[in-house]
Amino acid sequence: MRVLVTGAKGQLGHDVVDELEKRGYEAIGVDIEEMDITDEASVNEVLYKEKPEAVIHCAAWTAVDDAEDEDKKDKVHLINAVGTEHIARVCKELNCKMMYISTDYVFHGEGTDFWEPDDMDRRPLNVYGQTKYEGELAIEKILEKYFIVRIAWVFGVQGKNFIKTMLHLGKNHDKLTVVCDQIGSPTYTYDLARLLVDMIETDKYGRYHATNEGICSWYDFACEIFKQAAAMGRIEYDDEHLTVEPVTADHYPSKAKRPSNSRMSKEKLTENGFQRLPTWQDAVRRYLQEIEF
């Protein structure tokens, strides 16, 4: 199978390309230098030339707070919604599968129930979530052979993420405060990439949720990071050297409103025969063994 991956320099795109190559597939990794998704002519040129059998679309604007700036909103829409539509239109012409990586931010985040992949009451709270939702709508309108895979709280070896930020802060501060009233599930890109390739090998199309198993708050996530790093002897985590205190989200006002409930049901993965990801705690352990800090 010949698979084109957008956003190949990002945390997830990098791992997806690696996983495809491990399985002997022909992976064509592109980033903005090779294909500007906001430019319809660029998308047409690359996709018609490469003629992939599947596209895994990881490229996106993901700077959530910056997306709220008035001078950036049009660009965010162009990347996340219009760029996705450009790719979907060519996939339709080429009759190839398309996988779109979406986000928990398409949901309004109220209540405590787990969001189902096919829940229609989405109502995004911010520009990032709205534009990713518009990308979903474009795919659903244009294509039949599509996967929409919503993920959350992503961390990988490439790029910046919450774990790297916490480890950096933990080495330079003796007290941290972390939000405790936003609930979701972390997602390790190494684990996710394997699932995405499992999925693209099939024709079990539709909307899915894919994160590591288990739920936590950002505070729980931070505590687990420091606990495991301390167990490895790589950071000091005790009352004398470092403490972490829970606070509510209103202690950290931000430009973009974030959902408090990002619990996402993964039952649809099981129903379609896909292996769900390991627990988020196990993912943190393996990730800490991979990175330098």
Task: Tell me the layout of helices and strands.
Elements: E1 2-6, H1 11-22, E2 26-30, H2 40-50, E3 54-57, H3 73-94, E4 97-103, H4 127-142, E5 146-151, E6 154-155, H5 162-172, E7 175-179, E8 183-184, E9 187-188, H6 189-200, E10 206-209, E11 216-217, H7 218-231, E12 243-247, H8 267-271, H9 280-290
Parallel strand pairs: 1-2, 1-3, 3-4, 4-5, 5-10, 6-9, 7-12
Antiparallel strand pairs: 8-11
Describe the structure.
The chain is globular and about 60 Å long. Helix 1 (11-22) links the parallel strand 1 and strand 2. A six-stranded parallel beta sheet has the order 2-1-3-4-5-10, sandwiched between helices. The longest helix is centred in the N-terminal third of the chain and has 22 residues, at 73-94. It has 293 residues and is of the alpha/beta class. It has helices at 11-22, 40-50, 73-94, 127-142, 162-172, 189-200, 218-231, 267-271, 280-290, and strands spanning 2-6, 26-30, 54-57, 97-103, 146-151, 154-155, 175-179, 183-184, 187-188, 206-209, 216-217, 243-247. The protein has nine helices and twelve strands.
Biggest beta sheet summary:
6 strands, parallel
Task: Name the poorly predicted regions.
Answer: none
What strand order characterises the main sheet?
2-1-3-4-5-10
Quaternary structure state of the chains depicted: single chain
Structural class: alpha/beta
Instruction: Tally the beta strands.
Output: 12
- Radius of gyration, rounded? 19 Å
* Proportion of helical residues: 25-40%
Order of helices and strands: EHEHEHEHEEHEEEHEEHEHH
**Number of helices, where a helix is a run of at least 4 consecutive DSSP H or I residues:** 9
Strand content: 15-25%
Shape: globular
Mean pLDDT: 95
Cα separation of the termini: 37 Å
